[in-house]
Amino acid sequence: MRQKIDEKIEELKEVVERIRIIYNPPREYFTIVLPVILALLLLLGAFFTGYTFQGTQKQQQGDDARQKQLKELIAQMDDSGGASSKNTTTSDTPPATPKMGLDEIMVFAVLIAITPYAIDITLQKRSTRRKEELYTEFLFKLSELMRGGLDPIKSVKELSKTDLGILTPHIRIASTSMVYGKSFEESMKSMAKSLHSELITRYTTLVIQASYSGGSVADLILKASEDMRSIISIEREKEGNLSQYVMIFYFAQGIIFFIIYTLSASLLPFISQLGATTIFGKNQIAGLDFSRGFFHMIMINSFFGGLIIGKISEGDAKFGLKHAVVLMAAGYIACAIFILPPPPAPIAQTTNISAISANALDGVVGLPYKDPIQFKLTDIEGNPINSTVVQFSIIPSGKVDPGSDTTDRNGIASVKATLGSDPGTYLVIARANGATSQVKIIATTG
Fold first, then answer.
1. Residues in the chain with pLDDT < 50?
2. What is the pLDDT of residues 134-164, one digit of tens each?
3. pLDDT for 297-338, tens place per residue?
4. Over the chain, what HEC string results?
């Protein structure tokens, strides 16, 4: 089994190598183009499957919602048949776990789009830094060989036989090109170009110029090696000094989240309650979804904060993408745990409620129904449950009296219903311990 897996891996490597040699696709195709396409496909798929953007305005439940609820209940009763509708019992459990918003899908899409490129440029920079360090060693050894009496071309050939880590294949290619007739200048420039480092290119040009100048070429190359090593050391020291600012940015992001969590958990619920009392106007504050707005703010701040970290610490915003990935991922997890409302957990139904009164009663608009409407509350084994509060409501309009009633020893609770002013179908709904039942009343004008 292990042998077969190894064979498959080798075949895959051969296919990848064949594609690289024949087509030579730029690595940006795999680190930028392909991830962006996948991110767009994710967004389009989410959009067409019903995901919507969750704004900071809470969904208002007005008359339209009540009419929709009425239609759904009537359709349910019609499907089940008139006789069975009399004792309809449904679980008043929370709805199925709601879909996450399109804004959350956008966070995943952004992470998919930028993570491969962030990883790639980070690895490239580390590789380039390692190549630059080894190049200083290459220049030092080149100067030592030239001090021993060898010319630059023979010195490069000798160095191609040594081990200089990831520089070794590049030096061997340069040595081979010299064997086949290319000049020292052409071979060294080609090698510098393949290493993708501005610093190496600059000092390679200096070495080439030194090889054509008079005087001690070996001393000039040695001086170039020392200068290059000094520049690398200065760059490393500068990044080390700036790393404290990176930690400050991360710490500041943590403080921002802590403040937002404190507001969400303590202050804003109190403000929302004040808004619900209409002290501040027409429930404008109560209608705002602060948690969703805070989530948007944290995600935006994480993305642009990461770019700022890269600009300050490494001189280019693109190197901040890795910080953006870390901050966005950590921010999303923290928001999912502490800020965004959790999905409601299902409640196991332990109570049944059924209508004792007949279904499809006849009533007159604007008037109370002549008889009390009764509901019976029982446990899952059919035993009556007494001393339990049953809540009543009527849709789409009208009123109930009382709004709640306590079951007697037979598990029965009663309510009187006054119909609304429009003819049509009304539902008197009873709720208790996670179960609901309803009675339909057909209202006419008399």
1. 59-65, 79-98, 275-283
2. 999 999 999 999 888 888 888 899 999 989 8
3. 999 999 999 999 999 888 899 999 999 999 999 999 999 888
4. CHHHHHHHHHHHHHHHHHHHHHHCCCCHHHHHHHHHHHHHHHHHHHHHCCCCCCCCECCCCCHHHHHHHHHHHHHHHHHHCHHHHCCCCEECCCCCCCCCCHHHHHHHHHHHHHHHHHHHHHHHHHHHHHHHHHHHHHHHHHHHHHHCCCCHHHHHHHHCCCCCHHHHHHHHHHHHHHHCCCCHHHHHHHHHHHHCCHHHHHHHHHHHHHHHCCCCHHHHHHHHHHHHHHHHHHHHHHHHHHHHHHHHHHHHHHHHHHHHHHHHHHHHHHHHHHHHCCCCCCCCCCCECHHHHHHHHHHHHHHHHHHHHHHHHHCCHHHHHHHHHHHHHHHHHHHHHHHCCCCCCCCCCCEEEEECCCCCEEEECCCECCCCEEEEEEECCCCECCCCEEEEEEECCCEEECCEEECCCCCEEEEEEECCCCCEEEEEEEEECCEEEEEEEEEECC
